[in-house]
């Protein structure tokens, strides 16, 4: 039989032990859910350096035009001719220029291009996609680095390598780039950034990019790399949807933008050794969302075009399916074309077709065997990836593990043994293995872990409810009204204290976002960096409401039982604390449910994931502090002497 107190309640110590067990179960469930939901990795601070055998640049200029949110099917002929809405949503110029130089077209003597299916990895928010494009890696929700905060791109990346190697860059468009770089210092040839938050503004950014790029294209001697990032199509999708007349009008406008850029380069011989790349950083659903789940969301297009190419290869336009071009391949391909080191953390490979296309200009026309040059580029690419794999060492942060690292070492040994052979077979085997291992770790949700974790959360929530209210149905009929009144009072007090801790959090200027953390607090009293000390101060200040709550519960219990035995104070402290724990568990479970349902939502990494993280940590901190406070009441407490006096 259960040991009970005077009022029929179970022993406070026994209930506290059960509560501690439930808290441990909840922590385990939260961690299991987070392991499948919060894609995470550790950033590497290393930087790539030029190798002695590095090839010189193949092109001397590159123009990049990003049409944010552009879907791949906007450049393809619809297979359902009856779907008028889809049939008319096209970017015909991308297909026209990407169809290759048609042999029968005598007027098109120069210029050749191709369209690829540009495939993104989750998460597909714009900032994370830019990180992936520029580093060649797989950005995640948590890209932990040596610094406490900030969204600056801390890893080695294409822009940093171009700047370090003297390339002059100009940029205009989406101000998300300003979050990643100091644009004025990095893009010294010119920077014109425009606010990206107002999704109802579908014109300002595009108009700014249009004007800036037109001016820059008239002055090719002032820059080496020109970047424009248009947001109109993405904003139209969010505001009106992807299959509306608003989108049709925007795509017609963007189609003219693509044509104007390409024709300006075709008309000026200074672009004889230049290439232009037009692509979307991600796609979107018919509703305009881009969380990363469906082909419409992850598949965009990329037009790679050489305006002065005069090769003998001819394209057949729409007759063939577009080749896949993983977005992680963009950084190594661009670095190789422009003659700079491939970023240290790159996992992609140099695209052969774009490499060949670049060799059709004047600059590369006399270099001999193009395939042999490509093989050399791929071997340099493989050495870079192997250096990155080795940089993780045997630490816990390595996603590869001892078994897989041994296999990768064996594959790399084969690559080096066949370095003199004109084949890329062994190199591709190695690269594909590394990319698959990294993608399995960093870019795919663990649905099994999320499902089991959520079910475990529901079980622990039920356990918390039973512990908080199990005595009501044990009450005798005569005591039921009194019991309900007391439980109601305790619930009101618990809910009030819980809400008060929430007020402390938000009233203190905090938000459920990492850029809302008060990082200055971490440096209080420290002259040098101290990870644990600063982390403790930051956590203490952030969840101070939970800590205050843990102290407040015994004080309220003491005030409510001043004229009763000390055992009544103990029981009331336990009961109120467990009800607060129930509220916390409910909030954490709801946050996990929202994260699970909306894991492919546009704002999952901006809203749902941070909310889950803050609720999970806050719930754990509150429970631990409360258990410590309750446990301390079981000792010879000063309050007991006060009551006896």
Q: Could you describe the 3D structure shown?
A:
Pfam families: Phosphodiest, PIGO_PIGG. It comes from Ostreococcus lucimarinus (strain CCE9901). It is found in: Endoplasmic reticulum membrane. One of its GO terms (molecular function) is mannose-ethanolamine phosphotransferase activity. This protein is an alpha/beta fold. The strands form two sheets. An eight-stranded mixed sheet has the order 6-5-7-2-8-9-3-10, with helices on both faces. It has three domains: 226 residues, no CATH class; 269 residues, Alkaline Phosphatase, subunit A, CATH 3.40.720.10; 76 residues.
Summarize the structure.
Pfam families: Phosphodiest, PIGO_PIGG. The protein is 52% helix and 9% strand.
List keywords for this structure.
single chain, alpha/beta, PIGO/GPI13, 3 domains, 645 residues, Alkaline Phosphatase, subunit A, elongated, 8-stranded mixed beta sheet, 9% strand, disordered N terminus
How many individual helices?
Answer: 24
Low-confidence stretches: 1-8, 101-107, 144-150
Overall spatial form? elongated
**Mean pLDDT rating:** 83
Cα distance, first to last residue?
35 Å
Please estimate the helix content. Answer: 40-55%
The CATH superfamily of the largest domain is Alkaline Phosphatase, subunit A
Structural class: alpha/beta
- Name the strands of the widest sheet in spatial order: 6-5-7-2-8-9-3-10
Predict the CATH topology of the largest domain: Alkaline Phosphatase, subunit A
Share in β-strands: 5-15%
Q: Tell me the number of structural domains.
A: 3
What's the β-strand tally? 10
* The CATH architecture of the largest domain: 3-Layer(aba) Sandwich
Query: Biggest sheet, open or closed, and with what strands and sense?
Result: 8 strands, mixed
Radius of gyration: 30 Å
Transmembrane segments: 442-467, 487-509, 529-560, 581-600, 612-634
Domain GPI ethanolamine phosphate transferase 2 C-terminal: 499-624
Organism: Ostreococcus lucimarinus (strain CCE9901)
Pathway: Glycolipid biosynthesis; glycosylphosphatidylinositol-anchor biosynthesis
């Amino acid at each position: 039989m259960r040991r009970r107190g005077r009022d029929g309640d179970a022993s406070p110590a026994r209930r506290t032990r059960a509560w501690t067990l439930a808290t441990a179960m909840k922590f385990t469930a939260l961690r299991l859910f987070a392991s499948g939901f919060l894609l995470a990795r550790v950033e590497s601070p290393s930087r790539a350096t030029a190798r002695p055998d590095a090839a010189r640049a193949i092109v001397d200029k590159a123009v990049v035009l990003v049409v944010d949110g552009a879907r791949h099917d906007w450049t393809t002929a619809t297979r359902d001719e009856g779907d008028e809405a889809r049939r008319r949503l096209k970017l015909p110029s991308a297909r026209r220029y990407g169809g290759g130089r048609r042999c029968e077209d005598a007027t098109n003597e120069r210029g050749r291009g191709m369209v690829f299916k540009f495939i993104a990895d989750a998460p597909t928010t714009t900032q994370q996609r830019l990180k992936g494009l520029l580093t060649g890696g797989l950005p995640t929700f948590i890209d932990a680095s040596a610094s406490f905060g900030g969204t600056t791109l801390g890893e080695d990346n294409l822009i940093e390598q171009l700047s370090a190697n003297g390339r002059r860059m100009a940029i205009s468009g989406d101000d998300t780039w300003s979050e990643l770089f100091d644009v004025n210092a990095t893009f010294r040839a010119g920077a014109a950034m425009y606010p990206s938050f107002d999704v109802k503004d579908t014109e300002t950014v595009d108009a700014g990019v249009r004007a800036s790029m037109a001016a820059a294209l008239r002055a090719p001697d002032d820059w080496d790399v020109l970047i424009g990032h248009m947001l109109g199509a993405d904003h139209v999708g969010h505001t009106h949807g992807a299959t509306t007349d608003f989108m049709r009008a925007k795509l017609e406008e963007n189609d003219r933008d693509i044509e104007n850029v390409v024709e300006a380069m075709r008309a000026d011989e200074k672009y004889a050794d230049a290439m232009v790349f037009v692509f979307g950083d991600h796609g979107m659903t018919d509703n305009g969302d881009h969380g990363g789940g469906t082909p419409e969301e992850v598949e965009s297009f990329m037009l790679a075009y050489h305006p002065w190419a005069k090769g003998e290869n001819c394209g057949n336009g729409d007759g063939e399916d577009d080749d896949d071009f993983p977005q992680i391949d963009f950084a190594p391909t661009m670095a190789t074309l422009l003659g700079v080191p491939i970023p240290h953390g790159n996992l992609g490979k140099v695209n052969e077709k774009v490499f060949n296309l670049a060799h059709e200009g004047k600059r590369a026309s006399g270099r001999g065997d193009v395939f042999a040059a490509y093989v050399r580029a791929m071997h340099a690419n493989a050495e870079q990836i192997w250096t990155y794999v080795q940089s993780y060492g045997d630490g816990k942060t390595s996603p590869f593990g001892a078994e897989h690292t041994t296999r990768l070492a064996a594959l790399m040994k084969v690559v080096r043994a066949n370095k003199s052979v004109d084949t890329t077979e062994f190199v591709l085997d190695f690269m594909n293995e590394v990319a698959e291992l990294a993608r399995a770790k960093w870019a795919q949700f663990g649905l099994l872990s999320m499902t089991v974790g959520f079910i475990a959360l529901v079980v622990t929530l039920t356990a918390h409810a039973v512990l908080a209210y199990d005595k009501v149905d044990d009450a005798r009929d005569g005591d039921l009204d009194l019991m309900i009144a007391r439980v109601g009072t305790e619930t009101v007090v618990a809910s009030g204290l819980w809400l008060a801790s929430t007020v402390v959090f938000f009233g203190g200027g905090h938000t459920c976002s990492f850029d809302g953390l008060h990082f200055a607090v971490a440096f209080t009293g420290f002259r040098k960096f101290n990870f644990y000390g600063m982390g403790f101060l930051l956590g203490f200040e952030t969840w101070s409401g939970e800590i205050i709550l843990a102290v407040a519960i015994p004080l309220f219990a003491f005030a409510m039982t001043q004229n009763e035995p000390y055992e009544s104070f103990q029981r009331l402290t336990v009961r109120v604390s467990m009800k607060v724990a129930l509220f916390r568990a409910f909030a954490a479970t709801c946050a996990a449910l929202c994260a699970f349902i909306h894991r492919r939502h546009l704002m999952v990494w901006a809203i749902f994931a941070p909310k889950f993280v803050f609720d999970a940590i806050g719930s754990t901190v509150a429970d631990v502090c409360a258990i410590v406070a309750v446990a301390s009441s079981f000792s010879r407490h000063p309050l007991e002497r006060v009551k006896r006096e």
